[in-house]
Design a protein that fits this description.
The complex is a heterotrimer. By secondary structure, chain A is an alpha/beta fold. Chain A has one domain: NADH:ubiquinone oxidoreductase Nqo5 subunit (Beta Polymerase, domain 2), CATH 3.30.460. Chain A has four helices and seven strands, in the order H-E-E-H-E-E-E-E-H-E-H. Chain A is elongated and about 55 Å long. Chain B is an alpha+beta fold. Chain B is about 50% helix and about 10% strand. A four-stranded antiparallel β-sheet of chain B has the order 1-2-3-9. Chain B has a three-stranded antiparallel β-sheet with strand order 6-7-8. Chain C is mainly alpha-helical. Chain C has one domain. Helix content of chain C is about 70%, strand content about 0%. In chain C, helix 5 packs parallel to helix 13 and helix 6 packs parallel to helix 13. The radius of gyration of chain C is 21 Å and the shape is globular. The chains are: A alpha/beta, B alpha+beta, C mainly alpha. Chains in contact: A-B, B-C.
């Protein structure tokens, strides 16, 4: 199977309207699904040999008022990468975990939870991973959100000016 | 026994009552001979390990956030701080992603120079990793000091080519900063001869040493299906029998034109992971020889066009620790809108956490098991 | 007062010399320092580096003095929850145990610190078997998880190493037909016991590494997982003291090996005085044994505790028993 064939299969199975912004490259397939369909598509991908998560994260879009979550899954059978993306609301950012489908996303989802402030429902261990233990989300915010301003943190050795 | 004595007898077990079943929590790190800039929380009954929790984040610098404020050339410097041992391979993934965004193909000579530097860096990274692996199996520092000494000629070569021993900042999107200096080819070939001689010594003294095999064979076995499911990366994946190497599966630089094979092992234990690293160094020596032989002439860099042609790119590259991939989203400016770095160590740490759940691991096996993955806290923390 | 002391020294010159100068305290101190220096320089060469070079003009010989001064000058930290009396007592007493055992080793014809005719070989083993007890006390009284695991591992390692080494010594005693170290040495004038007791020697040599807790079997102090094992909490002068105990322990077992298998003080005539000659040869043999020990230390990875116990019970104890049976058969045949 190559990316184009997978895309055709996906469109056939889930309908043209659900597979949006699809783009085929050399060994890559990018597409976007509505959040409601994401777990179904993920299960379909897993059944078709996309078994190894290689990246996962999110992008904050304050203008569009969404957070885009992406999952990059490599297939040990077909040897190419699928990037599945879906949008969640920025006001109430949450989605259901994909750990049952791909166990390897455990730490990636944990990281997305703390850095982007996305509630991952059903995740077994939502505990600070990269941020300091005394990090307060209320005061300091979520570092990878676009409204987070890193320049308010002083350098430990003093400012350059 | 006096009351006082009794208190001291029970004190060391204080946490056991918390965990039940005669278990207690052992803090390996962040101040421990093997831990590095992180912590392993080991739940053990003194000899048998029931759970390992890896606590990363002690050196989180927010590189992903920093990159949102840097243009693509400035981004090179903070990115290199991820793994100082292996800077050019880390950078390779980023440079590939940016070139993909801008639709630029580097000139052929630049590709060959990149290949040589990547492979030199890979050998030096593997040597360091294997030295730590030997030491973690309880070797006196002899092997570590041997490998450190044998990294020196490689670092000298890198210094001659790039001007720096560790953080070269030599790759830029569109090529490399400068051409090779005169007379470097003979020096590289001499160093390769020296390294091959040293590899023979290593095989005799260390790789096939009885006690080393006793300590590492059958320790931390990672089955093939679990390796894929948990997302192991690099030599750890190949040691479990998955023939995946980015250099072969998604060839970049000069790799498609060179002849080499993917080193794999089927055992999946700590020894296999170390062995795969060791054999990969030999493959790297071979690749460098071929690259020098087939080196084309020509320019070494191209300028980037003013605007990227794509909005997003996902690029993968093979570092010493395994695959790194960069997902870059851009809105057309000279800076990325979002960079997602997925380093090998981040994935391998998760695998380390899972291993005690599928087999019995003893406390003494924990260090060799961890170091067979060659995890790097700075790599995982970003 | 002074007269009395002078009179005492004059009348008791021989025993005082043995206790204070050679082979007593001064020798132990000097030789420990030499052994550490030798280990550093020798291991450095095997690791393709120089070792200490700066302190002291020649071969960095002052480095150890500098290190010792540094350690003595450091603060002694008593952990808050340690059992302090035992913590101090066990560390301070540690070097005394092997030093007391060395008192039984003959350094020349009838020249031991403690010239006790009779049961010296079992007495030596008896004293040395106290050593692990103090290690266990150290690990336990520190009240730290790492030291406690280290102490438990010492118990396991003793089970693996002490029994075979005692059985090997029993083989030598059967062959010689005596319990006396002095007599055993005298009997090796023409043939070292390493030849008739070769099996026993193999057992002794392997168990020796378990007893001195060095590299293939430095399991109790396993740096990679236990920081420094039972010694983790000791600082400054106390740490120096425990290191001293460690090296005197190495010295004691090496001296026993020389006495039992390599002819003790026997050797070609170099000095006319037999005691001087004996001391000279015992030192030469000691340095050779240490060189071999250090080479082994650097050539192998550390065994796991279960592997060490398996080695002891599956291979060393049967081998030692076979050696005893062989010895008995050979003796009854009148060889």
């Amino acid at each position: 199977m190559n990316p184009q064939e997978l895309l055709n299969q996906l469109k056939e199975r889930f309908g043209e309207e659900n597979i949006q912004e699809a783009r085929v490259e050399n060994k890559r397939l990018f597409f976007k699904v509505p959040y409601e369909k994401a777990h179904e598509v993920a299960l379909f991908l897993k059944e078709n040999g996309f078994d190894m998560p290689i990246t996962m994260g999110g992008t904050d879009f304050p203008k569009k008022n969404v957070i885009e979550i992406f999952y990059g899954i490599w297939s040990s059978v077909h040897d190419f990468v699928v990037m599945m993306k879906f949008d969640i609301s920025r006001e109430e950012p949450k989605f259901k975990t994909f750990i049952e489908i791909w166990p390897g996303v455990h730490n990636f989802e944990r990281e997305t939870w703390e850095l982007l402030g996305v509630e991952v429902e059903g995740h077994p261990r939502l505990k600070l991973l990269l941020l300091p233990d005394d990090w307060s989300f209320e005061e300091e915010g979520y570092p990878l959100r676009k409204d987070f301003n890193p320049s308010r943190y002083k350098r430990p050795w003093g400012d350059e000016e | 026994m006096s009351h006082d004595m009794h208190r001291y007898l029970t004190d060391p077990f204080q946490e056991i009552t918390e965990l039940g079943d005669g278990l207690f929590r052992l803090n390996i790190g962040p101040q421990h001979p093997i831990s590095g800039q992180g912590r392993f929380l080991v739940i053990t009954d003194g000899e048998i390990v029931y759970d390992i929790e890896v606590d990363i984040g002690y050196s989180h610098r927010g590189i992903e956030k920093i990159l949102e404020y840097k243009n693509y050339v400035q981004a090179v410097v903070p990115l290199e701080r991820m793994v100082m041992l292996d800077t050019s391979n880390i950078l390779m993934g980023f440079v590939r992603a940016v070139e993909d965004l801008y639709g630029v193909e580097p000139p052929p000579r630049a590709k060959y120079i990149r290949t040589i530097i990547n492979e030199l860096n890979r050998i030096s990274s593997h040597l360091y990793a294997l030295g730590l692996f030997a030491e973690s199996a309880g070797w006196n520092p002899a092997i570590f000091i041997w490998t450190t000494a044998d990294r020196e000629p490689i670092l000298d070569l890198l210094e001659m080519i790039t001007g720096a021993r560790w953080s070269h900042s030599f790759f830029i999107p569109g090529g490399v900063r400068a051409d090779l200096p005169r007379g470097i080819k003979e020096r590289i070939l001499n160093t390769m001869d020296y390294l091959e001689k040293r590899f023979e010594v290593y095989e005799d003294a260390w790789i096939y040493n009885e006690t080393f095999r006793l300590r590492t064979e059958g320790v931390g076995v990672l089955p093939r299906d679990k390796a894929i499911e948990w997302g192991a990366a690099g030599p750890s994946l190949r040691a479990s029998g998955v023939a995946y190497d980015t250099r072969k599966n998604e060839p970049y630089s000069a790799y498609p034109e060179l002849d080499f094979k993917i080193v794999t092992h089927t055992a999946g234990d700590s020894y296999a992971r170390g062995w795969v690293r060791f054999e990969e160094m030999k493959v790297s020596v071979d690749i460098i020889r071929q690259a020098i032989e087939n080196m084309p002439e020509g320019p070494v860099k191209k300028t980037l066009p003013p605007r990227p042609v794509k909005q997003e790119a996902l690029a993968r590259a093979e570092t010493g620790r395994g695959e790194i991939n960069f997902y870059i989203y851009t809105e057309g400016r000279d800076k990325p809108y979002r960079v997602k770095i997925s380093p090998a160590s981040f994935r391998n740490f998760f695998v380390i956490e899972q291993l005690p759940k599928i087999q019995e691991i003893k406390l003494a096996d924990v260090p060799p098991m961890i170091y067979s993955f060659d995890p790097w806290f700075l790599d995982a923390d970003r | 007062m002074l007269d009395w002391i002078l009179e005492f020294v004059k009348t008791n010159f021989q025993p005082l010399f043995r206790i204070i100068i050679f082979p007593g305290l001064t020798f132990l101190f000097v030789f420990t320092i030499f052994a550490v220096w030798f280990q550093r320089k020798y291991l450095a060469r095997l690791m393709m580096r120089m070792g200490p070079v700066h302190a002291g003009k020649v071969l960095g010989w002052l480095q150890l003095v500098a290190d010792a001064l540094k350690l003595i000058a450091k603060e002694i930290i008593l952990p808050k929850y340690a059992y302090k009396k035992l913590f101090l007592f066990s560390a301070i007493t540690l070097p005394v145990i092997p030093a007391a055992a060395i008192a039984l080793i003959p350094f020349g014809p009838n020249f031991a610190i403690f010239n006790l005719p009779g049961y010296t070989a079992p007495l030596f083993l008896g004293i040395m078997s106290l050593y692990p007890i103090f290690i266990i006390l150290m690990g336990w009284s520190s009240n730290n998880k790492f030291t406690l695991i280290g102490a438990f591992r010492t118990i396991y390692l003793d089970v693996a190493g002490e029994i075979p080494i005692f059985l090997a010594v029993l083989g030598v005693m059967l062959w010689a037909g005596t319990y006396d170290l002095q007599t055993i040495v005298e009997m090796q004038k023409n043939m070292w016991f390493v030849i008739p007791q070769f099996l026993g020697f193999i057992v002794f040599f392997i168990s020796y590494f378990a007893m001195i807790e060095k590299a293939p079997m430095d399991i109790p102090e396993a740096e990679t997982e236990l920081v420094f094992g039972y010694r983790t909490e000791y600082t400054g002068a106390l740490f120096l003291d425990t290191m001293m105990g460690d090296y005197v322990n190495v010295l004691a077992w090496s001296l026993l090996m020389i006495t039992l298998y390599f002819g003790g003080y026997h050797g070609p005539q170099v000095f006319p005085d037999p005691i001087l000659n004996g001391a000279f040869w015992i030192l030469i043999k000691l340095i050779i044994i240490l060189t071999i020990t250090f080479t082994v230390i650097i050539s192998y990875a550390r065994l796991r505790i279960d592997q060490a116990i398996r080695l002891g019970w599956y291979y060393l104890i049967p081998l030692a028993l076979a050696n005893i049976v062989l010895t008995v058969i050979l003796k009854s045949l009148g060889v």
